[in-house]
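Section: protein folds

Sequence with per-residue C-alpha coordinates
===
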Amino acid sequence: MTENVGVDLGGWLRANRVSPGALVGVLVEPDGSVAVAVPDGALATTPEQLLLADRELRPRWAVWSQETAQALVAGGVRLTTCWDVAAVHRLMSGGWRADPAYTWASLHGVPADQIPAPSSGQPDLFSFADEPQAPTLGAAEALEAAELQRAALASGSDSGIAVATARAESTVELLAAELAADGLPMSRAVMEGLLDDSIGPRPRGPGHAAEVRAARDERVLRHAPAGVIADLRSNVQVRTLLAAAGVDVPDTRAWRLEEFKDKSPLVAALLEWRKAERIATTYGYAWLDDALGPDDRLRGAWTGCDGAAGRMTASSGLHNMPAMLRRAVIADPGHLFVRADLGQIEPRVLAAVSGDAALAAATAADDMYLPVAAQLSVDRPTAKVAMIAAMYGQTTGHGGNAARRMRSAYPVAMGYLDTADRSAQAGQDLRTYGGRRIRMSGGAGAADAESSGARTGRGRYGRNAVIQGAAAELFKMWAVTVRARAAPLGARIVLCLHDELLVHVPEGRAAQAAELVGDCLTETARRWAPGGPVRFIADISTVRCWADAKG
Protein backbone atom coordinates (compact mmCIF):
# COMPACT_ATOMS: atom_id res chain seq x y z
CA MET A 1 0.00 0.00 0.00
CA THR A 2 1.15 3.51 -0.76
CA GLU A 3 2.05 5.24 2.50
CA ASN A 4 0.99 8.79 1.70
CA VAL A 5 -1.23 9.99 4.49
CA GLY A 6 -0.87 13.61 3.42
CA VAL A 7 -2.50 13.07 0.01
CA ASP A 8 -5.93 14.65 -0.51
CA LEU A 9 -8.14 11.57 -0.52
CA GLY A 10 -10.96 13.24 -2.41
CA GLY A 11 -8.61 14.31 -5.18
CA TRP A 12 -7.02 10.86 -5.30
CA LEU A 13 -10.44 9.21 -5.62
CA ARG A 14 -11.48 11.60 -8.38
CA ALA A 15 -8.24 10.85 -10.19
CA ASN A 16 -9.20 7.19 -9.96
CA ARG A 17 -12.60 7.95 -11.51
CA VAL A 18 -14.61 7.28 -8.35
CA SER A 19 -18.14 8.64 -8.69
CA PRO A 20 -20.97 8.85 -6.13
CA GLY A 21 -22.18 5.39 -5.18
CA ALA A 22 -19.07 3.62 -6.46
CA LEU A 23 -17.61 0.93 -4.22
CA VAL A 24 -14.37 1.87 -2.41
CA GLY A 25 -12.68 -0.49 0.04
CA VAL A 26 -11.87 0.85 3.50
CA LEU A 27 -10.29 -0.64 6.62
CA VAL A 28 -9.20 0.95 9.89
CA GLU A 29 -5.68 -0.19 10.77
CA PRO A 30 -4.55 -0.95 14.35
CA ASP A 31 -2.60 2.35 14.46
CA GLY A 32 -5.75 4.34 13.66
CA SER A 33 -4.86 5.10 10.05
CA VAL A 34 -7.32 4.22 7.30
CA ALA A 35 -6.57 1.98 4.32
CA VAL A 36 -8.53 2.85 1.18
CA ALA A 37 -8.62 0.76 -1.98
CA VAL A 38 -9.98 1.19 -5.51
CA PRO A 39 -9.54 -1.26 -8.41
CA ASP A 40 -6.37 0.47 -9.62
CA GLY A 41 -4.61 1.18 -6.35
CA ALA A 42 -4.57 1.72 -2.61
CA LEU A 43 -3.76 4.51 -0.21
CA ALA A 44 -3.16 5.03 3.50
CA THR A 45 -5.00 8.07 4.83
CA THR A 46 -6.56 9.55 7.97
CA PRO A 47 -10.08 9.37 9.38
CA GLU A 48 -10.39 13.13 8.79
CA GLN A 49 -9.58 12.71 5.09
CA LEU A 50 -12.07 9.85 4.91
CA LEU A 51 -14.81 12.06 6.32
CA LEU A 52 -14.04 14.87 3.86
CA ALA A 53 -14.09 12.46 0.94
CA ASP A 54 -17.37 10.99 2.15
CA ARG A 55 -18.97 14.43 2.16
CA GLU A 56 -17.52 15.42 -1.22
CA LEU A 57 -18.00 12.26 -3.27
CA ARG A 58 -20.49 10.03 -1.44
CA PRO A 59 -18.96 6.69 -2.48
CA ARG A 60 -20.26 3.48 -0.98
CA TRP A 61 -17.51 2.31 1.37
CA ALA A 62 -16.92 -1.45 1.29
CA VAL A 63 -16.11 -2.70 4.80
CA TRP A 64 -15.69 -6.17 6.23
CA SER A 65 -18.07 -5.68 9.14
CA GLN A 66 -19.58 -3.28 11.66
CA GLU A 67 -16.22 -3.22 13.47
CA THR A 68 -15.00 -0.66 10.95
CA ALA A 69 -17.96 1.60 11.66
CA GLN A 70 -17.43 1.21 15.41
CA ALA A 71 -13.80 2.30 15.10
CA LEU A 72 -14.69 5.27 12.91
CA VAL A 73 -17.62 6.40 15.08
CA ALA A 74 -15.36 6.27 18.13
CA GLY A 75 -13.10 8.74 16.31
CA GLY A 76 -15.94 11.05 15.34
CA VAL A 77 -16.36 9.80 11.75
CA ARG A 78 -19.84 8.82 10.58
CA LEU A 79 -20.03 7.56 7.04
CA THR A 80 -23.05 8.22 4.84
CA THR A 81 -23.37 4.74 3.31
CA CYS A 82 -21.44 1.51 3.09
CA TRP A 83 -21.46 -2.02 1.75
CA ASP A 84 -21.00 -4.28 4.78
CA VAL A 85 -19.61 -7.59 3.55
CA ALA A 86 -20.62 -9.49 6.70
CA ALA A 87 -24.19 -8.15 6.66
CA VAL A 88 -24.62 -8.98 2.99
CA HIS A 89 -23.14 -12.46 3.49
CA ARG A 90 -25.71 -13.16 6.20
CA LEU A 91 -28.44 -11.87 3.91
CA MET A 92 -27.35 -14.12 1.07
CA SER A 93 -26.41 -17.25 3.02
CA GLY A 94 -28.86 -17.26 5.91
CA GLY A 95 -26.19 -18.22 8.42
CA TRP A 96 -24.66 -16.13 11.18
CA ARG A 97 -20.93 -16.75 10.68
CA ALA A 98 -19.49 -13.97 8.51
CA ASP A 99 -15.90 -13.37 9.58
CA PRO A 100 -13.65 -12.16 6.73
CA ALA A 101 -11.92 -15.51 6.17
CA TYR A 102 -15.18 -17.42 5.98
CA THR A 103 -16.86 -14.89 3.71
CA TRP A 104 -13.85 -14.63 1.40
CA ALA A 105 -13.58 -18.39 1.12
CA SER A 106 -17.31 -18.76 0.47
CA LEU A 107 -17.15 -16.21 -2.32
CA HIS A 108 -14.27 -18.11 -3.91
CA GLY A 109 -16.00 -21.48 -3.86
CA VAL A 110 -14.12 -23.12 -1.03
CA PRO A 111 -16.20 -25.97 0.50
CA ALA A 112 -17.56 -25.13 3.92
CA ASP A 113 -15.76 -28.03 5.61
CA GLN A 114 -12.40 -26.66 4.40
CA ILE A 115 -12.94 -23.18 5.84
CA PRO A 116 -11.08 -22.85 9.16
CA ALA A 117 -12.75 -21.58 12.29
CA PRO A 118 -11.97 -17.98 13.28
CA SER A 119 -8.66 -17.71 15.08
CA SER A 120 -8.26 -16.04 18.45
CA GLY A 121 -5.81 -13.57 16.94
CA GLN A 122 -6.25 -11.00 14.19
CA PRO A 123 -9.06 -12.20 11.84
CA ASP A 124 -7.31 -10.95 8.69
CA LEU A 125 -5.36 -14.13 7.79
CA PHE A 126 -6.51 -17.58 6.90
CA SER A 127 -5.27 -20.60 5.00
CA PHE A 128 -6.97 -23.30 2.98
CA ALA A 129 -6.04 -26.94 3.10
CA ASP A 130 -4.63 -26.79 -0.42
CA GLU A 131 -3.66 -23.11 -0.54
CA PRO A 132 -0.95 -22.28 2.03
CA GLN A 133 -0.33 -18.79 0.64
CA ALA A 134 -3.56 -17.14 1.75
CA PRO A 135 -4.13 -13.44 1.08
CA THR A 136 -4.12 -10.77 3.73
CA LEU A 137 -7.71 -9.59 3.96
CA GLY A 138 -7.46 -5.82 3.84
CA ALA A 139 -9.28 -2.99 2.12
CA ALA A 140 -8.59 -4.28 -1.39
CA GLU A 141 -10.02 -7.69 -0.55
CA ALA A 142 -13.07 -6.08 1.10
CA LEU A 143 -13.64 -4.20 -2.16
CA GLU A 144 -13.31 -7.41 -4.19
CA ALA A 145 -15.68 -9.26 -1.85
CA ALA A 146 -18.25 -6.47 -2.13
CA GLU A 147 -18.00 -6.49 -5.93
CA LEU A 148 -18.51 -10.25 -6.02
CA GLN A 149 -21.54 -10.00 -3.73
CA ARG A 150 -23.09 -7.18 -5.73
CA ALA A 151 -22.58 -9.06 -8.99
CA ALA A 152 -24.19 -12.19 -7.55
CA LEU A 153 -27.20 -10.24 -6.32
CA ALA A 154 -27.51 -8.31 -9.59
CA SER A 155 -27.60 -11.55 -11.58
CA GLY A 156 -30.73 -12.82 -9.84
CA SER A 157 -34.30 -12.54 -11.05
CA ASP A 158 -35.13 -9.98 -8.35
CA SER A 159 -31.92 -8.04 -8.74
CA GLY A 160 -33.37 -4.59 -8.08
CA ILE A 161 -34.83 -5.26 -4.66
CA ALA A 162 -31.99 -7.63 -3.72
CA VAL A 163 -29.29 -5.00 -4.28
CA ALA A 164 -31.40 -2.32 -2.59
CA THR A 165 -31.89 -4.61 0.41
CA ALA A 166 -28.15 -5.29 0.61
CA ARG A 167 -27.45 -1.56 0.63
CA ALA A 168 -30.00 -0.93 3.36
CA GLU A 169 -28.79 -3.88 5.47
CA SER A 170 -25.25 -2.52 5.17
CA THR A 171 -26.15 1.03 6.16
CA VAL A 172 -28.12 -0.32 9.11
CA GLU A 173 -24.79 -1.57 10.46
CA LEU A 174 -23.56 2.04 10.42
CA LEU A 175 -26.71 3.00 12.31
CA ALA A 176 -26.13 0.15 14.77
CA ALA A 177 -22.63 1.44 15.55
CA GLU A 178 -24.05 4.93 16.09
CA LEU A 179 -26.87 3.68 18.33
CA ALA A 180 -24.31 1.88 20.50
CA ALA A 181 -22.16 4.99 20.75
CA ASP A 182 -24.93 7.54 21.32
CA GLY A 183 -27.13 5.59 23.72
CA LEU A 184 -30.73 6.19 24.71
CA PRO A 185 -31.41 9.32 26.80
CA MET A 186 -32.57 8.30 30.27
CA SER A 187 -33.00 10.11 33.58
CA ARG A 188 -31.15 8.26 36.31
CA ALA A 189 -33.15 9.97 39.02
CA VAL A 190 -36.48 9.06 37.46
CA MET A 191 -35.38 5.50 36.83
CA GLU A 192 -34.22 5.03 40.42
CA GLY A 193 -37.59 6.34 41.59
CA LEU A 194 -39.41 3.86 39.36
CA LEU A 195 -37.29 1.00 40.65
CA ASP A 196 -37.91 2.05 44.24
CA ASP A 197 -41.67 2.06 43.66
CA SER A 198 -41.63 -1.31 41.90
CA ILE A 199 -39.01 -3.46 43.64
CA GLY A 200 -38.09 -1.51 46.74
CA PRO A 201 -35.08 0.59 47.76
CA ARG A 202 -31.55 0.01 46.55
CA PRO A 203 -30.11 -2.79 48.73
CA ARG A 204 -27.35 -1.73 51.12
CA GLY A 205 -25.96 -5.27 51.24
CA PRO A 206 -26.92 -8.96 51.01
CA GLY A 207 -28.94 -8.88 54.22
CA HIS A 208 -30.91 -5.82 53.20
CA ALA A 209 -31.45 -7.34 49.74
CA ALA A 210 -33.05 -10.39 51.35
CA GLU A 211 -35.33 -8.14 53.43
CA VAL A 212 -36.41 -6.19 50.34
CA ARG A 213 -37.13 -9.41 48.49
CA ALA A 214 -39.15 -10.80 51.40
CA ALA A 215 -41.17 -7.59 51.58
CA ARG A 216 -41.93 -7.88 47.86
CA ASP A 217 -43.09 -11.48 48.38
CA GLU A 218 -45.25 -10.45 51.32
CA ARG A 219 -47.43 -8.30 49.04
CA VAL A 220 -48.65 -11.60 47.57
CA LEU A 221 -48.52 -13.94 50.54
CA ARG A 222 -50.71 -11.67 52.67
CA HIS A 223 -53.60 -12.82 50.44
CA ALA A 224 -52.84 -16.53 50.94
CA PRO A 225 -55.13 -18.73 53.05
CA ALA A 226 -54.11 -18.93 56.69
CA GLY A 227 -51.16 -21.20 57.27
CA VAL A 228 -50.30 -21.59 53.58
CA ILE A 229 -46.85 -20.47 52.46
CA ALA A 230 -45.06 -20.87 49.16
CA ASP A 231 -41.93 -19.97 47.28
CA LEU A 232 -43.28 -17.66 44.61
CA ARG A 233 -40.35 -18.54 42.35
CA SER A 234 -41.49 -22.17 42.17
CA ASN A 235 -44.31 -22.81 39.70
CA VAL A 236 -45.22 -26.04 41.50
CA GLN A 237 -45.59 -24.29 44.85
CA VAL A 238 -47.47 -21.38 43.28
CA ARG A 239 -49.97 -23.77 41.74
CA THR A 240 -50.46 -25.41 45.16
CA LEU A 241 -50.94 -21.98 46.71
CA LEU A 242 -53.54 -21.04 44.12
CA ALA A 243 -55.40 -24.32 44.59
CA ALA A 244 -55.58 -23.67 48.34
CA ALA A 245 -57.17 -20.31 47.52
CA GLY A 246 -59.74 -21.95 45.23
CA VAL A 247 -58.04 -21.17 41.94
CA ASP A 248 -57.56 -24.50 40.18
CA VAL A 249 -55.46 -24.13 37.02
CA PRO A 250 -53.40 -26.65 35.02
CA ASP A 251 -50.43 -24.27 34.94
CA THR A 252 -49.50 -20.79 36.13
CA ARG A 253 -48.99 -18.99 32.82
CA ALA A 254 -49.89 -15.33 32.96
CA TRP A 255 -52.53 -15.51 30.21
CA ARG A 256 -54.31 -18.30 32.08
CA LEU A 257 -54.32 -16.35 35.35
CA GLU A 258 -55.61 -13.14 33.77
CA GLU A 259 -59.24 -14.32 33.89
CA PHE A 260 -59.01 -14.69 37.68
CA LYS A 261 -57.37 -11.40 38.60
CA ASP A 262 -60.63 -9.47 39.06
CA LYS A 263 -62.05 -12.20 41.29
CA SER A 264 -59.00 -13.11 43.35
CA PRO A 265 -56.82 -10.57 45.21
CA LEU A 266 -54.17 -13.31 45.41
CA VAL A 267 -54.00 -13.69 41.63
CA ALA A 268 -54.00 -9.94 41.09
CA ALA A 269 -51.13 -9.52 43.54
CA LEU A 270 -49.24 -12.46 41.99
CA LEU A 271 -49.44 -10.96 38.50
CA GLU A 272 -48.14 -7.63 39.80
CA TRP A 273 -45.39 -9.45 41.69
CA ARG A 274 -44.26 -11.12 38.50
CA LYS A 275 -43.86 -7.78 36.79
CA ALA A 276 -41.80 -6.51 39.70
CA GLU A 277 -39.77 -9.71 39.87
CA ARG A 278 -38.86 -9.43 36.20
CA ILE A 279 -37.70 -5.89 36.78
CA ALA A 280 -35.74 -6.92 39.89
CA THR A 281 -33.93 -9.75 38.13
CA THR A 282 -33.36 -8.11 34.73
CA TYR A 283 -33.77 -4.36 35.15
CA GLY A 284 -32.74 -3.78 38.73
CA TYR A 285 -30.11 -1.55 40.26
CA ALA A 286 -27.23 -3.69 38.99
CA TRP A 287 -28.52 -3.30 35.43
CA LEU A 288 -28.87 0.43 35.90
CA ASP A 289 -25.32 0.79 37.23
CA ASP A 290 -23.89 -1.32 34.43
CA ALA A 291 -25.80 -0.01 31.40
CA LEU A 292 -26.48 3.66 32.17
CA GLY A 293 -23.49 5.91 31.58
CA PRO A 294 -22.51 8.97 33.63
CA ASP A 295 -24.02 11.08 30.82
CA ASP A 296 -27.46 9.52 31.44
CA ARG A 297 -27.37 7.46 28.25
CA LEU A 298 -28.37 3.78 28.23
CA ARG A 299 -26.00 1.86 25.98
CA GLY A 300 -25.95 -1.62 24.53
CA ALA A 301 -24.45 -3.45 21.59
CA TRP A 302 -26.54 -3.39 18.41
CA THR A 303 -26.65 -5.75 15.43
CA GLY A 304 -28.41 -5.27 12.13
CA CYS A 305 -30.16 -8.66 12.17
CA ASP A 306 -31.05 -11.43 14.57
CA GLY A 307 -30.63 -14.25 12.08
CA ALA A 308 -33.49 -15.67 10.03
CA ALA A 309 -36.07 -13.01 10.84
CA GLY A 310 -33.67 -10.18 10.05
CA ARG A 311 -34.76 -7.88 12.88
CA MET A 312 -32.35 -5.52 14.61
CA THR A 313 -31.27 -6.59 18.08
CA ALA A 314 -29.73 -4.86 21.08
CA SER A 315 -28.26 -5.87 24.42
CA SER A 316 -28.68 -4.19 27.84
CA GLY A 317 -32.44 -4.76 27.75
CA LEU A 318 -33.04 -2.09 25.13
CA HIS A 319 -35.47 -4.33 23.21
CA ASN A 320 -37.44 -5.70 26.14
CA MET A 321 -37.77 -2.79 28.55
CA PRO A 322 -41.03 -2.98 30.54
CA ALA A 323 -43.49 -0.27 29.57
CA MET A 324 -43.47 1.30 33.04
CA LEU A 325 -39.74 2.03 32.78
CA ARG A 326 -40.28 4.09 29.63
CA ARG A 327 -41.20 6.93 31.95
CA ALA A 328 -37.49 7.39 32.59
CA VAL A 329 -36.66 7.76 28.87
CA ILE A 330 -36.69 11.56 28.66
CA ALA A 331 -35.24 13.75 25.93
CA ASP A 332 -32.25 15.95 26.74
CA PRO A 333 -32.94 19.60 27.65
CA GLY A 334 -33.87 21.53 24.53
CA HIS A 335 -34.79 18.33 22.69
CA LEU A 336 -37.86 16.20 22.01
CA PHE A 337 -38.51 12.72 20.70
CA VAL A 338 -40.26 11.98 17.46
CA ARG A 339 -41.75 8.55 17.96
CA ALA A 340 -43.00 6.67 14.90
CA ASP A 341 -44.61 3.24 14.91
CA LEU A 342 -45.55 1.37 11.74
CA GLY A 343 -49.22 0.45 11.73
CA GLN A 344 -50.43 -3.10 10.98
CA ILE A 345 -47.15 -3.67 9.22
CA GLU A 346 -47.20 -7.44 8.72
CA PRO A 347 -50.62 -7.69 7.01
CA ARG A 348 -49.69 -4.73 4.81
CA VAL A 349 -46.42 -6.43 3.93
CA LEU A 350 -48.35 -9.62 3.12
CA ALA A 351 -50.49 -7.64 0.68
CA ALA A 352 -47.37 -6.20 -0.97
CA VAL A 353 -45.21 -9.30 -1.28
CA SER A 354 -48.04 -11.61 -2.35
CA GLY A 355 -49.50 -9.23 -4.91
CA ASP A 356 -53.05 -9.85 -3.66
CA ALA A 357 -55.08 -6.99 -5.19
CA ALA A 358 -58.04 -7.46 -2.85
CA LEU A 359 -55.89 -7.33 0.27
CA ALA A 360 -53.94 -4.39 -1.15
CA ALA A 361 -57.22 -2.50 -1.53
CA ALA A 362 -57.87 -2.96 2.20
CA THR A 363 -54.61 -1.15 3.02
CA ALA A 364 -56.10 2.12 1.79
CA ALA A 365 -57.89 2.35 5.15
CA ASP A 366 -56.13 3.65 8.24
CA ASP A 367 -57.43 0.54 10.01
CA MET A 368 -57.26 -2.19 7.37
CA TYR A 369 -58.99 -4.70 9.64
CA LEU A 370 -62.28 -2.88 9.06
CA PRO A 371 -62.48 -3.56 5.29
CA VAL A 372 -61.12 -7.07 5.91
CA ALA A 373 -63.93 -7.62 8.43
CA ALA A 374 -66.49 -6.43 5.87
CA GLN A 375 -65.03 -8.76 3.24
CA LEU A 376 -65.15 -11.73 5.63
CA SER A 377 -68.58 -10.77 7.05
CA VAL A 378 -67.22 -10.82 10.60
CA ASP A 379 -66.50 -8.23 13.28
CA ARG A 380 -63.14 -6.44 13.50
CA PRO A 381 -61.67 -8.56 16.33
CA THR A 382 -62.43 -11.72 14.37
CA ALA A 383 -60.89 -10.23 11.21
CA LYS A 384 -57.71 -9.47 13.13
CA VAL A 385 -57.61 -13.01 14.49
CA ALA A 386 -58.12 -14.36 10.97
CA MET A 387 -55.22 -12.34 9.59
CA ILE A 388 -52.85 -13.34 12.38
CA ALA A 389 -53.93 -16.98 12.17
CA ALA A 390 -53.24 -16.98 8.43
CA MET A 391 -49.71 -15.67 8.89
CA TYR A 392 -48.92 -17.97 11.81
CA GLY A 393 -50.58 -21.08 10.39
CA GLN A 394 -53.19 -21.55 13.11
CA THR A 395 -55.66 -24.22 11.96
CA THR A 396 -57.72 -24.94 15.07
CA GLY A 397 -60.00 -23.02 17.38
CA HIS A 398 -61.40 -19.55 16.75
CA GLY A 399 -58.28 -18.45 14.86
CA GLY A 400 -58.37 -21.49 12.58
CA ASN A 401 -62.06 -21.02 11.76
CA ALA A 402 -61.46 -17.36 10.98
CA ALA A 403 -58.42 -18.12 8.83
CA ARG A 404 -60.45 -20.47 6.63
CA ARG A 405 -62.61 -17.52 5.58
CA MET A 406 -59.45 -15.85 4.31
CA ARG A 407 -59.00 -18.49 1.60
CA SER A 408 -62.02 -17.42 -0.38
CA ALA A 409 -61.56 -13.69 0.25
CA TYR A 410 -57.80 -13.43 -0.34
CA PRO A 411 -56.68 -16.52 -2.29
CA VAL A 412 -53.49 -14.93 -3.67
CA ALA A 413 -52.19 -13.95 -0.23
CA MET A 414 -53.10 -17.31 1.23
CA GLY A 415 -51.45 -19.06 -1.71
CA TYR A 416 -48.22 -17.15 -1.04
CA LEU A 417 -48.24 -18.26 2.61
CA ASP A 418 -49.17 -21.83 1.75
CA THR A 419 -46.31 -22.09 -0.74
CA ALA A 420 -43.84 -20.98 1.93
CA ASP A 421 -45.42 -23.45 4.36
CA ARG A 422 -45.08 -26.40 1.97
CA SER A 423 -41.51 -25.53 1.03
CA ALA A 424 -40.51 -25.25 4.67
CA GLN A 425 -42.14 -28.57 5.51
CA ALA A 426 -40.16 -30.16 2.69
CA GLY A 427 -36.92 -28.79 4.12
CA GLN A 428 -36.40 -26.33 1.26
CA ASP A 429 -34.79 -22.97 1.97
CA LEU A 430 -36.94 -19.87 1.58
CA ARG A 431 -36.19 -16.33 0.46
CA THR A 432 -37.84 -13.19 1.76
CA TYR A 433 -39.08 -10.54 -0.65
CA GLY A 434 -35.78 -8.71 -0.22
CA GLY A 435 -33.71 -11.85 -0.77
CA ARG A 436 -32.77 -12.99 2.74
CA ARG A 437 -32.21 -16.72 2.81
CA ILE A 438 -34.19 -18.57 5.46
CA ARG A 439 -32.53 -21.91 6.08
CA MET A 440 -34.70 -24.94 6.66
CA SER A 441 -32.63 -27.82 8.05
CA GLY A 442 -32.44 -31.17 6.35
CA GLY A 443 -33.98 -31.48 2.92
CA ALA A 444 -36.73 -33.51 1.36
CA GLY A 445 -35.33 -36.84 2.56
CA ALA A 446 -34.74 -35.64 6.09
CA ALA A 447 -38.17 -34.01 6.18
CA ASP A 448 -39.83 -37.30 5.18
CA ALA A 449 -38.20 -38.99 8.17
CA GLU A 450 -39.52 -36.42 10.63
CA SER A 451 -42.71 -36.56 12.58
CA SER A 452 -45.77 -34.87 11.17
CA GLY A 453 -45.76 -32.44 14.08
CA ALA A 454 -42.17 -31.36 13.42
CA ARG A 455 -42.89 -30.72 9.74
CA THR A 456 -46.04 -28.81 10.56
CA GLY A 457 -44.16 -26.64 13.05
CA ARG A 458 -41.48 -25.88 10.51
CA GLY A 459 -44.13 -24.97 7.98
CA ARG A 460 -45.71 -22.52 10.37
CA TYR A 461 -42.31 -21.01 11.04
CA GLY A 462 -41.63 -20.65 7.33
CA ARG A 463 -44.93 -18.97 6.44
CA ASN A 464 -44.40 -16.40 9.17
CA ALA A 465 -40.68 -15.90 8.52
CA VAL A 466 -41.21 -14.72 4.95
CA ILE A 467 -43.57 -12.00 6.23
CA GLN A 468 -41.68 -11.04 9.37
CA GLY A 469 -38.41 -10.98 7.43
CA ALA A 470 -39.85 -8.76 4.69
CA ALA A 471 -41.34 -6.43 7.31
CA ALA A 472 -37.92 -6.15 8.97
CA GLU A 473 -36.35 -5.27 5.61
CA LEU A 474 -38.92 -2.55 4.97
CA PHE A 475 -38.42 -1.16 8.47
CA LYS A 476 -34.65 -1.00 8.13
CA MET A 477 -34.86 0.68 4.74
CA TRP A 478 -37.14 3.26 6.38
CA ALA A 479 -34.73 3.68 9.29
CA VAL A 480 -31.69 4.37 7.10
CA THR A 481 -33.76 6.81 5.02
CA VAL A 482 -34.73 8.69 8.20
CA ARG A 483 -31.08 8.60 9.31
CA ALA A 484 -29.98 10.27 6.08
CA ARG A 485 -32.79 12.80 5.68
CA ALA A 486 -32.96 13.86 9.34
CA ALA A 487 -29.23 14.49 9.81
CA PRO A 488 -29.37 18.12 8.55
CA LEU A 489 -31.94 18.83 11.28
CA GLY A 490 -29.52 17.70 13.99
CA ALA A 491 -31.78 14.68 14.60
CA ARG A 492 -30.50 11.22 15.43
CA ILE A 493 -32.24 7.90 15.79
CA VAL A 494 -31.74 6.68 19.36
CA LEU A 495 -33.86 3.52 19.33
CA CYS A 496 -35.11 0.98 16.78
CA LEU A 497 -37.67 -1.27 18.46
CA HIS A 498 -39.14 -3.85 16.08
CA ASP A 499 -41.47 -1.56 14.07
CA GLU A 500 -40.86 1.61 16.07
CA LEU A 501 -38.38 4.47 15.67
CA LEU A 502 -37.43 6.97 18.35
CA VAL A 503 -35.68 10.05 16.96
CA HIS A 504 -33.97 12.62 19.22
CA VAL A 505 -34.26 16.09 17.73
CA PRO A 506 -33.75 19.74 18.77
CA GLU A 507 -37.07 21.07 20.05
CA GLY A 508 -37.31 23.83 17.47
CA ARG A 509 -37.12 21.31 14.63
CA ALA A 510 -39.33 18.60 16.09
CA ALA A 511 -42.40 19.41 13.98
CA GLN A 512 -40.29 19.44 10.82
CA ALA A 513 -38.68 16.14 11.82
CA ALA A 514 -42.05 14.52 12.48
CA GLU A 515 -43.27 15.47 9.01
CA LEU A 516 -40.00 14.26 7.51
CA VAL A 517 -40.31 10.84 9.17
CA GLY A 518 -43.69 10.36 7.51
CA ASP A 519 -42.32 11.51 4.16
CA CYS A 520 -39.46 9.02 4.53
CA LEU A 521 -41.97 6.18 4.90
CA THR A 522 -43.65 7.24 1.66
CA GLU A 523 -40.27 7.43 -0.07
CA THR A 524 -39.23 4.05 1.30
CA ALA A 525 -42.46 2.37 0.20
CA ARG A 526 -41.94 3.66 -3.35
CA ARG A 527 -38.43 2.22 -3.43
CA TRP A 528 -39.28 -1.02 -1.63
CA ALA A 529 -42.38 -1.84 -3.69
CA PRO A 530 -42.23 0.49 -6.70
CA GLY A 531 -45.58 1.06 -8.33
CA GLY A 532 -47.36 -1.04 -5.75
CA PRO A 533 -50.86 -0.18 -4.51
CA VAL A 534 -50.17 -1.01 -0.85
CA ARG A 535 -50.38 1.88 1.59
CA PHE A 536 -48.07 1.89 4.61
CA ILE A 537 -48.85 4.06 7.61
CA ALA A 538 -47.15 5.13 10.83
CA ASP A 539 -48.41 6.61 14.07
CA ILE A 540 -46.13 9.62 14.58
CA SER A 541 -46.07 11.80 17.67
CA THR A 542 -43.77 14.33 19.29
CA VAL A 543 -43.12 13.80 23.00
CA ARG A 544 -40.62 14.68 25.71
CA CYS A 545 -40.97 11.33 27.45
CA TRP A 546 -41.21 8.01 25.62
CA ALA A 547 -44.07 6.87 27.87
CA ASP A 548 -46.21 9.78 26.65
CA ALA A 549 -46.33 8.37 23.11
CA LYS A 550 -49.58 6.72 22.06
CA GLY A 551 -49.73 2.98 21.53
